[in-house]
Structure formats: structure tokens, C-alpha cells
Amino acid sequence: VYPDVKFEVTLLNSVIDEIIKSTENSKDEYQQKVNQYLKKPNSIKAINNNFDKLIKNGLVITNNYLVVDAIDKSYGMFPSTLGNVGVIEIDQIKNLIVKAVESVVRKMINSSYPINISFDASKIEEINELFNPVENALMIIVTMKNRMETYTKSHANAKKDIMRFTDEVAKSLGFEFTAEYTSVLFLAVNSSEVLMVFLDELFFSIISVLCLLMVILIYSLLMTDVEEKTFEYGMIRSLGLHHSSLFFSIPGIILGVFFCKIIYIPVDYIISQYAETSINVTITPSALILGIGIGFFIPVFGIVGLVKRALTKTLRDALDIYHHVVSETQVKIQKLEDIGMSLPEIAISIIMVVIGFGVYYGIPTAFVSQNYSLFFRFLTLLLLIMILGETLLGQVVNNILEKLCVSLVIWGSNKKLKIVVRKNLENHFSRNSKTSVMFSLCLAYIIFAAALFSLMGGSLTRQIEWTTGADIAISANEISYPLPEEQIRNIIEQNLLTDEDLIEEYSFVTFPISANNCVVSTVMCPVSGITSQHVSLYGVEPNILKTLLTKYYMVESYDYKYIIDNDPIASLNQTIDPQKDYAKFIPELFESINSGKTTTKGRINYYYPLNATRTYTKAYPILVGKNYISTTYSEPNEWTPMVIDSYDNDISEVYLLKPIAVLNKFPGFKGISSGDILGGEYVAFISMNHYEDFLNKTYEYLYEANPSPKIKEIYKKPDTVLKQYLFIKVTEDATDFQIEDIINNILRYIDDSTKYNVNNLRHSVKSTNSIAELLNKIFYFIAFLGIFMCSFMCYLSFTANLKENSWEFGILRSIGLSAIEVINVYIYEAICIILSCVVVGTFIGVCSATILTMQFNLFMQLPFTLSFPYFMFFEMVFLSLVVAIIGSYVPGKQYAEKPINI
């Protein structure tokens, strides 16, 4: 910051007064001469004349520093566009400024009177006011207290808190404070909104599935050994214990909350290490309510029917070990259907009404109000209902698959057991159905959860790669501060000479042609001109695709007639003759318009050459986004006029463009296939030569329209086309230090680095990989819980099957089957159940994962990728088969050792 005139006079007067005061009573001869010299008006005038030149050179401060430590992470305090940053204490800066002012004053005095003087510039009051580093700070960083509360809130509430805090800061500084406010946290919340919504819905779906698995597991535990509990409860009642005293859920809930607290501590520690936040081991109220609700109400509601079977009306029936029914009395049954009521129909009707209301009214309302959290919550609930419906529907197919598995599993000498196994599957279908539902649901949950966790982690990397476009991407925010192309090219070319293996390619991209001062807008439309859109037209160099990540270069369609050597970018340099194909449709007299001249709007005395706006003697090839084709209802093979409106809409130029490729995606430019729905823009690309040609003609026509001399000066044509983007591709062997060195060398030629964005792809990907790693760890932990519950459920089910059918076990042995063969019957039954559930669960999981992946990619505009958890899948299948065999063999072995008559 250079001082103005008022600043100079104020500072010099204070300096001279300080020197006169310090030398007034000095006995030194030279000090007395200085005092007399400074009191002369001519001396002060001479000093003023030399001040401006000396102050500008003197305030270039150089000093040597010793680096005492390095900052590993700045956590966003210092933007990457600043390049290398050093931190020193602010008093050091004040001392340097004081010494610099003293040096400048000495030079000014020595230029007129060669003597040495000593004075203390820090005593000058204006020094602290005019050279205060805080008042001249480039950037002021304000940190909000209790930021974690804002981070963990919903997006809408987080935005409200951030805006409220920013407004308070602005009000405290005053309305006259000239500064640009930037809320980095607000921008971060905005950019991650869609992704965070998907993560919220992912965890919501996982919690819902886990809750459903727990409900089935608790219900199965209550059903285990009901016949044995009949005698047990009868004995308890014979001792005088009442029905209402049979409560065991409350101690279990207390123990569950206690163990949850212990297990949550290491989990929270791991998450806090990744998120770099403080540890907070407090269990949220929602988690407590959910756990207590499941632990208390499910046993209470589920035990009614089951305990009713065990706790009969009479004590004699309960003590009867051969008891199999609730009460051996005559019962008259009257169905609700007979009086016009059907509970299944009522339940289905209520469910359909709720789903219909949510789909028909809830989802459109959430989308129109842009409440994406509610919108995706409806979609998640529909997905969970669909998965549950598929699982229940799969039980219809399960019986057929089980019989098919019997034919595939049982071979050799055990073929005679096929009939017995089939009969067992039919007789045990009621109990096995709960095991089948839980196993199929758990397997489907693991498949689609693994696919989604992998998708979330991978999508972060792919999103960054797509939006960055290349290994290094530097972009200018305003056309007033374009990239210094010449200096950057010199640096890169010098680097190519010294280290040929470091940089492979680099390429520049222009600003949109509408960003230039001489252009108001660029509008493209079909030939009819009925539908039109403002399009950002960029100029690209021939090597752009060699520099960018081509896996994100996706094309909807090509017009191969105008593609040269299968290179669409090189084909942009050609000029197309439209009359070659359409001359027969142009009237002969119509071509005479080409030789005339046209006037500007409102200036009939000024002329400029007509650029063939009617017969189009030339056409220019372009690459255009799919969103433009969809919005304007154009066809990819149609010709497209483009209107360039110049300054003050005084001149409108019309050019004929020919889309030679329709883009679905282009690296470094996001949203070209989404239109305005998700904040995208209409983008087209043209060759650098044609871009410059359009711009030159616009300047030429503006000058020929003869505006005022002032306007001519404002819209003076730049020497080169201004560049907005720079993409650099480095070798795979390039180190992080080498990449940072390239970036820092480029930033040396940028005066105000805050006007530019610098992206280091490798550094960004490494940061996101840590997040992906955390997501995978969370998935493995959740999957382990699911596998544990499923394995426990399978063991209970297969053990209960054999215990409840001990009488059947004895019958099979009495008709001639050996103990090993009878055990094999139950083992084969369990294996067939597991295999049929594997087929159903895998199908449901793959379908659900595919649907969710397609939905996610639809909103994030990423290529379709489906990750299948092979390790977790085979681990669960293997453990389930082992549990099935052990759960059937262990109790079967116990019964096999007993005599048949027992």
C-alpha cells in the first residue's frame, strides 16, 4: 500500500518536528546544523520532493529469519492460493516498519545535507496510525465459538447459524467498513449438501435395517423353547408368583445402555481422530430413545401371544409336560371376515394410503420447497419398504428354491433322505420363515450397504477428479485478473527443459466470450430461433484432452461427418461450408444480400461489414453440452445460430455453429448435462483460433460503429486472448514436493493470489481417501453386527427345530434310520435353507444397490459403478453354513446318545 499526498505531508511534518525537538538543545555541532537546516522552508520543500521516490523504495522490507518450526496442517486458515506462508509475531512487523521509516528519513536528509542523525521514529504518533499492520491486513479471519454445534446441525439450521454469525460480525464492524465478506464454512456446507444428505439417508437406512433385524431376533428369542417354558412358568406360578412379575427387559436395557457407553468410547475416539475434533462420548437422546424403545416395547408386545401359550388359564395345564396348546377346552372360532372385517386388508389399506400420500404429495412438496433432506427421506422410506416387500415376496420363492437345493445338495448314499428333508422343510416352514426373512434381509443389507459405502467413498474422489479436471488446475475468478499466460508458459517451458519427465502436458482455456468487456451476451438457438439460451462459449487449445482426465470426457453422440481423424478437438479448427449441403434450398436472389452493408441500431450514419448473417457462407464447429440440446429441443445434427450482442446492444453479430459432438460430461466443467436444475450452466467449446476471430470481429465492428473516444479507450482490444483456466498434467512418478514446487513457481507471478483458485488433485484425493477409509471402517463394524445377529438367529432357529421335534427325531430312528442319518437330515435342511436365502438375499441386495447407485449417480452426475463386497459376502455365507451345521449337529448329537424310548 503506497501512501497518498495527505499521508506524506502528515508523516513528514511529524518526522521533522521530532528531529527538530531532539536536536534543539544538542551541543553537537552537526546536530545544531541539522536543526537549523530543517527550520528553513526550502529544506522542507526539498525533502518533500524526494519523499515519494524514496518511500516506495524504502518500504520494500527485506530481512533474514530463522525457521524454528513447521505447521503440519493449517486447517484452512491459510488458503492454498497464497502459496508458501510464513508466520511471525505482529510486533516484529511494527519494528521493521519503524526501522524502514528511519532509514527513509536519513536518506532524504543525506540527499541534501550529508550528515548522520539519530532519532526514534516509534515516538511519532502517526506511525502507529498510518503503518498499523492490523489496519492494513489483507485478510481477517474470524472464528466462531462452538463450531461443532453448527457442524452437526441440519443444513438449513447450519446455514442460519452461519449467516447470523456473519451478520453479527458485519454489524460490529459497521456499515462503512469497506471489506468483502466470505463465509468459508457456509461455502463448504453448500458444496457438500447433496453428499451429506446422501450420507444421512444411508445411515438412516442402515439403522432401520438393524432395528428390523433386532426386532426379529428378539421375537425369535421369545419363541425359543416355548414348550419347555410352559412347565417352567407353571412351576414359578405354583410358588405364588403373579403374571405381572415376569419382567426381565428393564435390567437388560440398563446393561445394554452401560455396554453401549463403553463400546461407544473407542468408536468416538476413532471418528474424532479422523475428523480432527474433540471427543464427545455423550450418547444422543435419539439413540437412547431408540434403544430403550426397542428393548422395552418389543418384548412387551411380542411376549403377549407367546407367553399366553406358556401361561395357560389353569395351573394343571401348565404343569402338564405333554401340553401343546393354550387350553384344552372347546373353543368356538368366529372370523372377522364373517362380520365384514379383514385385518390383513385393513393393514394393507393403511400402508397403501400412507405410501400414496407420501409419493403423491410429500415428495413433490419437498422437491418444490427444495427441502432435499425431506425429499430423500421419502425416497429412503420407499426404498426400505421396497426391500422389505422384496424380502417377504422372496419367501414365496424360498420354498421352491429349498426343494431345488435338496436335489443339488444331497447325493450318493444319502439320496434316500431327500423325501424326509423335503417333508421337514414343509413342516418347519413356519419357524424357518423368520430365519429366512432375517438371513435374506441381512445379506441384502450387507450387499447394498457395502455398495453404498464404497460408492460414497469413491464418489468423493471421483467428484474431485471431475471438478478439478487435471493434476494441477489454476483458475482466475475475474476477467480483470486473468492468468499471466506469457510468464506461466516461460516457467513451464523452462521446467520442461530442465526436467523433461515431470510435466507431460499443459493447456489453457479462455474466459467465456461473454465475459469480455466488449460483449454483453452470447445466445444460441435452433435455426427457427424460438427457443434460446445464454451459453458460455470457451476457447480451448488442441491438446486439451491430452491434459485432462479423459475418463470424465463423456460424449452423447458424434457427427462423424465433420470429425477429422477421430479427434473432435482437432476438428474444431476446421471451417464448414453450409451452402455445400444446403445451396439448393437458398433462392438465387437471396444471396445478393451478402454484398450489402448494415447499420447499427440507432446510428444510421455508421456502417460495418455484414458478416453473412442470412446465407451463412461459413459455419464453425463446436462441442456443446447435452443440457443445451435438451432444453432447446434441438437435434444433435442441426445447425445452430449464435448471436453475440456487443456493447450497449449496439451491434449484434450472428454466426452459424455446427455441433460436432454432444457432451454428457467434460473434465473441469461440472453441470453441463444438468441444466439449471442442479445449478449447472450451458457450456460450449470452440477452437482458440475461432474464438479469437469472433472477438476480433466484435472489436472491429465496435470501432467501425465509431463510438466516442472514451469508449474506444475502454474497449481497447487486448494483445492476447485472456485465459481463465490452466490445466497441467504431471507424470505419475512426480512427488508431492515437485507438484507443490510447480504451483509455487507459478504463483510467484500472481500479484493478488486471492483472485485465483489453485487445486492440487493429488493432495485433495489424499484428503478424501482418509474419509473413504473411515466410511469403510464404519461399514465393517456395522456389517459385523449384522453377521453376528444373523448367525445367532440361525443357531437359535436350527437348535430349536431339533429340540421342538425331539419326538420326530425318535420316530425317524425307530423306523430304521441311524443316528448319523437323522442328524444329516437336519443338517441338510439347514444347508438348503441357507442356500435358498443366499440366492434371494443376493438378488435383493444387488437390485437395491443398483437402484441406489443409479439414484446417487443421477444427482451427482457420476459414471455408474457398482462395488460388490465379495469378502463380506463369502464370509457371511461361510459362517452361516458353519453355524447351520453346528446348530444342527450339537443338539442332534445329544439326542442321538439317548435311547429311543426316552
Task: Outline the structure in words.
This protein has 902 residues and is an alpha+beta fold. The radius of gyration is 40 Å and the shape is elongated. It starts with a helix and ends in a 6-residue tail after the last helix. The strands form three sheets. Strands 3, 4, 5, 6, 9, 10, 11 and 12 form an eight-stranded mixed beta sheet that branches. A four-stranded antiparallel beta sheet has the order 2-13-1-14. Helix 27 (819-860) packs antiparallel against helix 28. The protein contains 28 helices and 14 strands. 56% of the residues lie in helices and 10% in strands. Among the domains are: 5-130, no CATH class; 147-191, no CATH class; 390-464 and 761-902, no CATH class; 512-720, no CATH class.
Give the SSE layout:
Elements: H1 5-23, H2 29-38, H3 41-58, H4 90-112, H5 125-130, H6 147-151, H7 155-173, H8 184-191, H9 193-223, H10 226-238, H11 249-275, H12 285-310, H13 315-318, H14 343-368, H15 372-409, H16 418-427, H17 429-468, E1 472-476, H18 485-498, E2 503-510, E3 519-524, E4 533-534, E5 536-540, H19 544-547, E6 554-558, H20 579-582, E7 597-600, E8 603-609, E9 619-625, H21 626-631, E10 640-646, E11 652-665, E12 683-687, H22 688-704, H23 709-714, E13 723-730, H24 736-747, E14 756-760, H25 761-804, H26 806-814, H27 819-860, H28 870-896
Parallel strand pairs: 5-12, 9-11
Antiparallel strand pairs: 1-13, 1-14, 2-13, 3-4, 3-10, 6-11, 7-8, 9-12, 10-11
